[in-house]
Amino acid sequence: MKLTSEAALRDHYGHPHDMVRQKVLSALEVHSRQFLSLSPFMVMSTSNEEGQLDSSPRGGEPGFVKILDDTTLLIPDAKGNNRLDSLRNIVLNPSVGCLFLVPGIHETLRINGKAEIRIDDASLAHFAHLKQTPMSVICVHIEEVFLHCARSLTTAGLWDPAAQVERSVLPPLGKMIRDQIEAKSAV
After folding, report:
1. What pLDDT does residue 64 have?
2. Across residues 15-43, what is the average pLDDT?
């Protein structure tokens, strides 16, 4: 049986507890600000006009995402591989979802909103302290912010040293990409 409507989903799962509904905020507050100041890593999800999705990891020193005000974040975008997946999507569809993690903390912070790409001096100046000036700044106008429970990270054992995989289990990234390209060419 396939669930194909929100009503069917609610019949199967039920409704969220009142506290779960109330925890969704429209602006940053003391705890979300502190979480952002400690976070060295995030995943940003975007979508193009056709609904094709992309999730992109981003990281830096803890607090690499700057809080401009209670409803605005600035995320530096350094020069990379020039695929520009997230940036292209933002230009086509400004909706973004951001998931922030703090090493050792099992809860996550989720922020949803609308984004724009900025290259003006004022936006870039927020990152003048970095070794390399970002190519652009992703400005996120917050619509929703909320803390997410620890269940998934706890279940995954993400921060458990015993669950960590030795790097030698996988080949170096360059070899994996070359192998993938060769396999694709052989088809």
Report:
1. 96
2. 94
